[in-house]
Amino acid sequence: MSIQLFVPTFRVDECLKEIKECLEKGWTGLGYKTIEFEDKWKDYTKLPNAHFINSATAGLHLAVKILKDEYKWDEGDEIISTPLTFISTNHAIAYEKLNIVFADVDKYLCLDPIDVRKKITKKTKAIMYVGLGGNTGQYKEIVDICKEYDLKLILDAAHMSGTRLNGEIVGKEADVVIYSFQAVKNLPTADSGMICFKEKKLDDIARKFSWLGINKDTYSRSLDNGTYKWRYDVDYLGYKYHGNSIMASIALVQLRYLDKDNAYRRQIASWYDEAFKYHKNLVKPVPVSKGCESSRHLYIIEVNNRDELLVALNLNDIYPGVHYRDNTEYSVYSYGKGTCPNAHRLSSRIISLPLHLRLTKDDVEEISNNVIKLASSIKED
Length: 381
Ligand SMILES: *Cc1c(COP(=O)(O)O)cnc(C)c1O
Hints:
Elements: E1 3-4, H1 12-25, H2 33-45, E2 51-53, H3 56-70, E3 78-81, H4 87-95, E4 99-102, H5 113-118, E5 124-130, H6 139-149, E6 152-156, E7 164-165, E8 168-169, E9 176-180, E10 193-197, H7 200-209, H8 218-223, H9 245-276, E11 283-285, E12 292-293, E13 299-303, H10 306-315, E14 318-319, H11 341-347, E15 350-353, H12 361-374
Parallel strand pairs: 1-14, 3-4, 3-5, 5-6, 6-9
Antiparallel strand pairs: 2-10, 7-8, 7-12, 9-10, 11-13, 13-15
Helix pairs in contact: 1-9, 2-9, 3-4, 3-7, 9-12
The site of pyridoxal-5'-phosphate has 14 residues, from helix 3 and helix 4.
Protein name: Spore coat protein
Family: Belongs to the DegT/DnrJ/EryC1 family.
Keywords: Capsid protein, Pyridoxal phosphate, Virion
């Protein structure tokens, strides 16, 4: 049997029950379950606002766009970001014609506060922080830098559903937090996400922007007597970014199990840790920072012979992944090449091992035995 990187688990009967309610009611769109899920998400995260959207990519774009408008940033102003992320993170900045200044990563594969400080200029407006794999890295230091330099903090929490730092869901310090509930994330739906602004005013704006700039959603209009439903105003040139009740149905069920699922992810990670404990010369797991209870979306190791190891594992029917390639290796971001040596080096040395709820202890043993057998102790050139 082959072992895949990610296999999402759905509580099928519970999901179908929620979806059936939508179909029977005749309400699959914006409102209804999307509102119910937003309320449950606020209860769970203790974040003050939450707006359900159709992807984290859409949310990241909204975050940058709305902050740019609100704080009157100009084209060419700068946001410091990481090169070791999914391209959505950086595309969101580029969509708004702001300059991405890449800063290097630390041993957690998250932004390194020391390099971030070096990259601050008069034009810097915000820091885009990614909690890679669910890790908080040096988040607190980044929060301090934002306070010191009066920068906005955007938290790409696509991997961080359920991540806690010192016992609290991470993110309350950020100006905006964006989650992904894409098909293979640790809270999987099919495609959806959440944008959580600290300020209520910006949450209101996000709700309009995510539905083409229309200033009242269908559901709340239908609660009025309905006569003037069509007479809405259009405040902004908005986008079609909001989520729907079918995705929210699945998300509602997933949220019930999130803490339990993440605990099993951490169990898997600790089995891997145990297996690699005496093989530090071959396999270096990326550490989780102190005080972080990671969602464990990813289990990443650093090895000397990454490309060969990937091929060898595939031949053994094990299919790991890579998170991520240094974004400055892509043509669109090649202007950043050479600015983040640590990210560049690690990008050719990291592998994400299979991590999902269907894996057993035996699977983890089989994977780690293969990794230890096939990882090479040959030093890098
Ligand atoms: C998956 C991912 C996104 C985009 O999420 P979608 O919901 O698929 O748009 C953004 N940032 C990171 C770090 C991701 O892994």
